[in-house]
Specification:
This protein has 136 residues and is an alpha+beta fold. It is built from 3 helices and 8 strands; from the N terminus they run ααββββββββα. The relative contact order is 0.21.
């Protein structure tokens, strides 16, 4: 009985530490984004991955993460200090201004902070992310 109960409790506790929401695509589409006084792209490294965030003045855009093997892109909406994705991932915005963006995601108790610098010319963006940001 202990062998079944303890792993179940541990897994339940870990799930409570995630930044994954149970938001459906229609709920995401109904979110009202927070308008910002600037727009553009911010890029940077996150460990061995590269990231780019592209936002318009309405607070909507795309976040792309490329680990140099595979790129993942998310449609995102900024609501107050939270960046919600269309795939249920939630990022806490620690800083967002015309020169840098700092966003934090925690998953299963582990946290990652993306420290991104303004990059409207996509100088520090991988080709895969550049094409994904341009496509949306």
């Amino acid at each position: 009985m202990k062998n079944i109960l303890l792993p179940g409790i541990f897994a339940f506790a870990l799930v409570g530490c995630t930044s994954i929401t149970t938001m459906t695509p229609s709920q995401f589409n109904q979110l009202t984004a927070t308008q910002i006084p600037f727009s553009g792209s911010w890029s940077g490294e996150a460990g061995s991955s590269m990231a780019v965030l592209n936002l318009n003045r309405q607070g909507s855009g795309v976040l792309c993460l490329d680990d140099r093997k595979e790129a993942m892109s998310y449609k995102v909406k900024l609501v107050d200090n939270v960046l919600y994705s269309d795939q249920g991932v939630k990022f806490n915005v620690k800083a967002l201004n015309n020169s840098n963006a700092k966003i934090h995601m925690s998953l299963l108790g582990l946290g990652v902070t993306l420290d991104l610098n303004k990059d409207d010319q996509f100088k520090h963006v991988t080709p895969r992310c550049k094409s994904r940001v341009a496509a949306l």
